[in-house]
Design brief:
The complex is a heterodimer. In chain A, a hairpin with a 2-residue loop joins strand 1 and strand 2. By secondary structure, chain A is mainly alpha-helical. Chain A has a 3-stranded antiparallel beta sheet. The termini of chain A are far apart. Helix content of chain A is 64%, strand content 4%. Chain A is built from 18 helices and 3 strands. Chain A has one domain: Ammonium transporter AmtB like domains (Ammonium transporter fold). By secondary structure, chain B is mainly α. Chain B has a domain of 26 residues. Chain B is 66% helix and 0% strand. Chain B is built from 2 helices and no strands. Chain B starts with 25 loop residues before the first helix and ends with a helix. The chains are: A mainly alpha, B mainly alpha.
């Protein structure tokens, strides 16, 4: 007979994780809804399908190697030693399946629990569909999936282990501080998207014969607006993802129960929450003034606001967050057209500017404001400083983001498996699923018109 | 073929770790997973290529594309008139 005596699993952690997962799902659905909104009608359905079907690819690649990479590369390797322990995250490890030690592991070694893998997959997927929304309407599905694997299961895990983990070498050597993924999530996303778009080129109709960019109208402004609202609040899932809510820490003065950031430093959960809403507000204030009549851009201010404070929101004052988000959002809105006009980059969702640039400048601002703060709990860590942070931001944007994206897209282009054919770019990817419907609908219209004219003729006679 | 050593819960549960079937053959499942993964990527390329070829064959000429654009345009006009 089996008797349950007590339950040792920390249910508060479990509930916290489930709420995090819920917000991350909001984020992903928000991006998909927004992408449906900005797609042209003849691409809209396929775009939803493409973005959604990146999910199984990300699940498989994360399970096979992405999750292990996110632990293995914390020390560089070489910079601070060899590969860190990652055997538990390999796909043939007994911890990667149902295991009675999982529950124990859940409490004792939070990072190694399967729940952490699920959260990692959802964060990766949301990054991938952000990326996918930038390159729509010209890329082949297979090429998008290969690029997704390169970003989502190789370079983002490396970036995460270098810069966004408790023992990453960047915080120990550079004094790099990025509390909520300003660099590890947003900057690498922007860099990779820029690299891919540099090779992929623009949609056929984006630029006119005078090389002036056309503003492609949204397919569904309601989807666009609600998608953006979901994204704004869904990004809160990234905040939750980067926090260890109930942790006991010790120093020589005693033992304490605190919320910790991803580097293991004590933070205030509610303070972060307040900073988060201040960041949204600052961004929205600027976007409302700057682009009130532009439904595509008006809510992006909220996203830019959050991205801009993500690097240092654990130690900012709420008013700092308001001001930083306003300044960065203004700078981002001023540079929206710059990439299009100057470099002919056709970024369908403005990912490069609203995530890449905002994340980059957020890192730089954080390094100046948090100069001298301890970057991690590890002994011998360098204090947060602008030089280390700038170097970290450059490495993330260019080496982990831009170069892999540019090279991979270049290889796919070389083998002629990157672009959709010119015909499909004109007909739209939905053509095979919607063509018959359009023809039938038109036939019915014609038939109805004929019936009406027959009825009129009958009345007259 | 035995599915595993677990056939009784009246044991010291602290000694039990993995509880999935065929424990010990993870290497094989890993290889299968890699095969499925690669097959999916290649299959997606094949499906997309066949769709693309179909559209290119049927609509690749200038006349067909023009008539298709007219068709879309007509469809949108009908919708606008309906509104």
């Amino acid at each position: 007979m089996i008797e349950v005596v007590s339950n040792k699993v920390d249910y508060i952690n479990l509930i916290y994780d489930l709420i995090t997962v819920l917000f991350l799902i909001f984020l992903s659905f928000g991006i998909i809804l927004r992408t449906y909104g900005i797609s042209r009608e003849k691409f809209a359905l396929t775009n939803i399908k493409i973005l959604f079907f990146s999910f199984p690819v990300i699940v498989l690649s994360s399970y096979l190697f992405g999750w292990a990479i996110s632990f293995a590369f914390s020390s560089g390797p070489i910079v601070k030693g060899g590969f860190r322990e990652f055997a538990f995250a390999l796909p043939w490890s007994e911890f990667m399946g149902p295991n009675l030690d999982n529950n124990q592991t859940f409490v004792n070694d939070y990072q190694k629990s399967p729940m952490s893998l699920i959260k990692f997959i959802l964060v990766t997927w949301s990054m991938i569909i952000f990326f996918g929304s930038a390159i729509i309407e010209r890329i082949r599905i297979g090429a998008f999936l290969i690029l997704s694997i390169i970003l989502g299961s190789i370079f983002w895990p490396i970036c995460s282990s270098w810069s966004w983990s408790s023992n990453g070498w960047m915080s120990e050597v550079f004094g790099y501080h990025d509390a909520f993924g300003s660099g590890a999530f947003h900057t690498i996303l922007g860099g990779f998207a820029l690299g891919v778009l540099g090779k992929l080129g623009s949609r056929k109709i984006k630029f006119n014969s005078f090389s002036k960019a056309r503003d492609i109208p949204a397919n569904s402004e309601i989807s666009l607006i609600f998608g953006n609202i979901l994204v704004v609040f869904g990004i809160f899932g990234l905040f939750l993802y980067s926090i260890n809510p109930f942790s006991e820490i010790k120093n020589e003065f005693g033992s304490y129960m605190f919320t910790l950031n991803i580097y293991g430093n004590p933070i205030s959960f509610y303070g972060v929450l307040l900073n988060f809403v201040m960041g949204i507000s600052g961004g929205l204030v600027i976007s409302a003034i700057h682009s009130f009549n532009n439904n595509k851009k008006i809510f992006i201010g909220g996203i830019v606001g959050i991205v801009s404070i993500s690097a240092g929101a654990d130690y900012y004052h709420p008013v700092h967050c308001l001001l930083i988000s306003m300044i960065v959002t203004l700078a981002v809105f001023k540079s929206f057209n710059y990439l299009e006009e100057k470099f002919k980059i056709d970024d369908a969702s403005d990912i490069i500017v609203s995530h890449g640039f905002a994340g980059f400048w957020g890192l730089i601002i954080a390094s100046i404001l948090l100069w001298g703060y301890p970057s991690s709990m590890a002994e011998g860590s360098v204090f947060t400083n602008p030089f280390g942070q700038f170097a970290g931001a450059l490495i993330i944007f260019w080496i982990l983001g831009f170069i892999p994206g540019y090279l991979t897209a270049g290889i796919l282009k070389f083998f002629n498996i990157l672009h959709l054919s010119d015909t499909i770019q004109i007909t739209g990817q939905d053509i095979l699923s919607t063509r018959d419907k359009i023809i039938e609908t038109n036939n019915i219209y014609e038939a109805e018109k004929k019936i009406i004219s027959d009825m009129k003729a009958d009345k007259k006679s | 073929m035995s599915r595993g050593e677990l056939n009784n819960w009246i044991v010291d549960l602290a000694d039990i770790s993995s509880i999935y079937i065929f424990s010990g053959s993870e290497g094989l499942w890993f290889v299968l997973c890699v095969i499925v993964f690669l097959w999916f990527i290649l299959a997606i390329y094949r499906v997309e290529k066949s769709n693309q070829d179909k559209v290119d064959d049927e609509l690749g000429s200038k006349e067909n594309l023009n008539s298709l654009i007219d068709l879309f345009h007509q469809d949108n006009e009908e919708k606008d008139n309906g509104n």
